[in-house]
Amino acid sequence: MLIWLVELADKVQFFNLFRYITFRTGAALFTSAFIVFLFGPKMIASLRVRQGKGQPIRADGPQTHFKKAGTPTMGGLMILAGILGGSLLWADLSNIYVVATLLVTLGFGAIGFYDDYLKVTKQTEKGFSGKARLGIEFVIAGIAVYFMMRMALATGASTNPTLGTSIAFPFFKDFLVNLGFFFILFGGFVIVAAGNAVNLTDGLDGLAIVPVMIAAASFGVIAYLAGNAVFAGYLQINFVPGTGELAVILGAVIGAGLGFLWFNAPPAAIFMGDTGSLALGGLIGSVAVATKHEIVMAIIGGLFVMETLSVIIQVGFFKMTGRRVFLMAPIHHHFEKLGWTESQVVIRFWIIAVGLALLGLSTLKLR
């Protein structure tokens, strides 16, 4: 919104700063953090009153979790408020990638909100129907991917006419697999998978939000580089005009995440809930699709992949043999059952997330 102030740069040189993505990314970060810090306490107090018993605690979960009973959920509303405020103020809202990413973020957030609402009001772990939820997620993601695909095809017509419908592979220069219109299904799957992977990871205080911020910072770098012809050419990655603007949204994610972590640090005053985890995962997935780094996302977000695979393996193996591979899934609960304290699990998983992010970023030069 404030990007229009660039037009005043001829009269007041200060406004020339609004032309730079790096400046607006930093501004979005501080703006979103300020919003969460400012409204966070009032929102937590309101949710505590409205929810009463708070988020239901799994009966088969670690015993240490029962002391968290009564903690309100839907803290994702705080995060979304920060992201939306920072993005609307500092991002270029005429950019299709920005609009599509915000569509996924708000759409997935709405689905998560309804899921949280059902869990809180019915005091059950089962919320929205799984099939219905996935179906709606695919529709939202598919619409966003379609517009991003059309944008990439239009802007890349002179350099690579098939870029918008292709999958790019790390480590290989100019190696693309063109899926045509089937790319909508692939991109939709990536976004939905990312949303639900972050959702599965969100089980301990601070466990999901820090890896999300790490992934956001990593993709902020990727988006900025992929959207800059000079840097993309130097690194030999695919140049996708317009994606640099996504760095502003990712800056808002980091700021909102920092603000939320202040209240979510152990012992948590509020839980993110599906409202936040689905929205944040969908946002990261959308940026990965827009920047043509879907496979790299599996590396940077490797922690989320690990959590998801642990659930798939646990459920699949139990159905086949009647036995369990892990003491409890997702895998962070397995380590709790082994005797790790919650803080040990969280901090060690943060370390893993940092290592995977660095590994993912290294693919930018290894071509």
Word description of this protein:
There is one protein chain. Strand 1 (166-168) and strand 2 (176-178) form a beta hairpin. The model has no long low-confidence stretch (mean pLDDT 89). 64% of the residues lie in helices and 2% in strands. The protein starts with 20 loop residues before the first helix and ends in a 5-residue tail after the last helix. The chain has one domain (22-362). It has a two-stranded antiparallel ribbon. It has helices spanning 21-51, 76-90, 96-122, 130-155, 183-201, 209-226, 229-235, 246-264, 273-290, 294-300, 302-321, 331-337, 342-362, and strands at 166-168, 176-178. It is mostly helical.
Q: Number of DSSP helices?
A: 13
Backbone CA Rg: 20 Å
Q: Helix fraction?
A: 55-70%
Order of helices and strands: HHHHEEHHHHHHHHH
* Strand count: 2
Low-confidence parts lasting 5 or more residues at pLDDT below 50? none
The side-by-side strand order for the widest beta sheet comes to 1-2
Given the helix and strand composition, which structural class is it?
mainly alpha
Envelope shape: globular
Euclidean distance between termini CA atoms: 37 Å
Estimated share of beta-strand residues: under 5%
- Main beta sheet strand tally, sense and closure: 2 strands, antiparallel
Number of structural units classed as domains: 1
Mean pLDDT: 89
